[in-house]
Structures are given as structure tokens and as C-alpha cells.
Amino acid sequence: MLIVLAAAAFCSDFAAPTVDIQAMKRKAAESGAAVQGAAVQRPRVMSGSVDMTDFLTLLEDMTLDTTVLRGLLGQISVSFRPPTNEANAEYGWILNHLYLPDSLRDPKTGGVRYNLNSSEISTVIHELTHAAEDLLASGSAPAGSPAYEHHQALAMLASQVRDGAWAAHKPRTKANELASYYMGRAVADVADALDALRIYNARLGGGGTLVSDEEQARRLGGHILLFDQKPVGARPGGDAPQTWKDMQHRMLGHADVINAAQLGGRDIGVEPAAEIKGRLFQNALGLKPPLSVRELVDRLNDPQRRSPGIDALRQEALEARLKSARSAVPASR
Ligand SMILES: [Zn+2]
After folding, report:
1. Ligand 1 centroid to 177 CA: how many Å?
2. Three-class SS string for 44-72?
3. Is the dihedral of CA 219, 203, 58, 50 positive or negative?
4. pLDDT tens digits, one per residue of 97-123
5. Distance between CA atoms of 191 and 179, rounded to whole angstroms?
6. Which of 178, 222, 256, 258 matches a 20 to 30 Å C-alpha distance to 201?
7. Total domains in the fold of the chain
8. Residues with CB under 5 A from ligand 1 (ion)
9. Is 253 left (phi over 0), alpha (psi -120 to 50) or beta?
10. Residue 308 belongs to what H/E stretch?
11. What's the rounded mean pLDDT across residues 58-73?
């Protein structure tokens, strides 16, 4: 039931360019606030005394569905607590109370910050998954429903744990812990993929440096390119590194937890089977996540899909392209 907020858990497997992701997220949040202000105001989502709206917006900006989460947040109450020697994030199933570390609090809103890094997103999702294990997963739900599939995945995982070497003790508790670690990491992977796309489109090849003229930049607009794609007639030479090109084939929902998931300070030492991961990813929390980076890109380019962060991402890419095009052809004076 406990997770200690891991420091520096963000490990990217691509060469990390030196850009200020937090500043870009801040910009997206500010731009998002402006868009929200102009559009129909959605009601703030409070859970207990904590405003969870910005966290839900963050997930929607990652193209995730928050319908189930909104319902879940109505069944629990959230509060912050200051860092202690003990774990500072915890879901207490007796009172349906979710504790989050104070470091996730936005002093301006009093709620959870919009600009969480992927490790912090993992922490919140981990605890919300515990709440969903407790309150939503159900063996008596209709077969095929997310609640039923979540329950089945946990049962399969408990049986996998039971068959493990030392793990036979408390298989259900360990299964729940593994599932929460897995969900936290799997959703964090979506956040990391989105960050990589943002950097590529707003700063590197897909966004700016390859665009050779303003007309081309305008034609491309805010269309989000995968790492292998570059604009037609692009400037030669500025190709994406191979590690980034590999991202185009990357599947989501395959996060490993064998070296992360702990119970009572000990590694559980079990890696959930791929089939179990698939069921969890698609059902627990009802997020309807993209199953690949390619699908994430398709969603980001779907004109029907609007959210403050997605709008900001498209705008950022367009601005970077225009700026690059202008610098490519010196203006004649
Ligand atoms: Zn836990």
C-alpha cells in the first residue's frame, strides 16, 4: 500500500536534449488556462479538500480518458501530507483516503500541480490504482467490462505470484502492489513519449530545423510528426538520431516493474505476464490509453480531439516551424 516518492526515477532511453520541459509545460498550462477561460467552464473536481482538476487536465492532455477517474475521485478523499521518514504517498482502504506528498501541491490552487514530472505522475497513478483495486475492480461486474477485466487481471497476477519462488505469502497483496507499480510506470511512459514528441516537434527536426520556407511551415501547421517523418522538401542533413527513430515503433503499456515493485521494503521480484499487463493497461482506471507511440501521434493529430495542452502543443510546433523558416531565409531589406 506504500510507495516512497522516488527521486530521479525519470530515465529516458533516448538521448535527452537540453530543453526545459518544465518551462514548456508551464507555458502549455498557461495557454491551457486561457483556452479554458474562453471555452465552456468545466466544474472543478474536488476530492476531499484537494482540487484534482489540473491532474485530470494533465491526463487529458496525454489523450487519456478521465471519466472513470472522475467517478473514483468522488468515492475517495485526497489530502496532502508533508514528507516524513515514512512513505508519504499512501492509499488507506479502510477510510478510502488517499495521501499524496506535499511536494505535488500547487501553492496557487491548493490542488495537485499540472506540471508533474513522469515520476510524480507515476506516484499519483500508483495510489489511484490501489483505490480502483479496492473500489472498482469486481468479479461480479458484467464479463468484459473494465471492472471485471481489472478484477481478472489481479486474480491472474495473484496466481502468478503464488507460483513464484518466495512470493507465495500474501499473493493478493503483492498482486495489488505489482499492478499499482505497473500502472504508475505505464502511464508515466505515455507522459515520457509525449515529452519526446513535444521536443521533437517544437525544437528539433519535426518542428523547426528542417523546415526550409514559411509556406512549407504553414502547410505543416501544428501537425505532430513522428520521429521518422520530416516535411516534404525538407532541408538535407538534419536527420533525427537513430534512437529517436526507434521511438516510432515503440509500444506503450510494456513497463517493467521487477526492479521497482516493493512490499514492506523488499523487492517482490515478479514481472507480470504480458497478457496481465495488457488487461491492466486497458481496463484499470478506464484511461483508454494509446497502445503505441504511433497511436498517440494519431490522437494528437485528430482534429476532433481538443484539450488545452494538445492545442498548446500544436501551437508550439507551428511557432517553432515559422521561426525556423524565417531564420532559414534571411529577410531582404
Ligand atoms: Zn502501493
Report:
1. 5
2. CCEEECEECHHHHHHHHHCCCCCHHHHHH
3. negative
4. 999 999 999 999 999 999 999 999 999
5. 18
6. 256
7. 1
8. 3, 180
9. left
10. helix 308-328
11. 97
CA 4 – ligand 1 centroid, Å: 9
Cell of 265: 521494503
| DSSP character at residue 249 | G
Secondary structure element (H or E) that encloses residue 98, with its range: strand 97-101
Provide, rounded to the nearest whole percent, the portion of the chain with pLDDT above 70: 76
Domain carrying residue 223:
34-43+118-328
Compute the distance between CA of residue 103 and CA of residue 310 in angstroms, rounded to an integer: 26
What distance in angstroms lies between residue 197's CA and the mean position of ligand 1's atoms?
30
Stated pTM of the model:
0.83
> What is the model's pLDDT at position 11?
29
Q: How far is the CA of 206 from the centre of ligand 1 (A)?
A: 39
Sign of the alpha-carbon dihedral angle for 76, 78, 83, 84: negative
Question: Distances from the Cα of 254 to the Cαs of 119, 172, 262, in angstroms?
Answer: 16, 22, 19
Please give the angle made by the CA atoms of 28, 72 and 84, to the nearest 5 degrees.
75
Residue at 136 is within a domain: yes
How many Å lie between the centroid of ligand 1 and the Cα of residue 257?
12
Range from 234-243, 291-300, 304-313 carrying the lowest mean pLDDT: 234-243
Q: How far is the CA of 90 from the centre of ligand 1 (A)?
A: 7
The whole-angstrom separation of Cα 289 and Cα 284 is: 11
**Within a domain: residue 138?**
yes
To the nearest whole number, what is the mean pLDDT of the chain? Answer: 83
**Would 76 be classed as within a structural domain?**
no
Report the pLDDT averaged over residues 278-294. Answer: 97
Q: Express each pLDDT in 133-165 by its tens digit.
A: 999 999 999 999 999 999 999 999 999 999 876
Q: Is residue 50 in some structural domain?
A: no
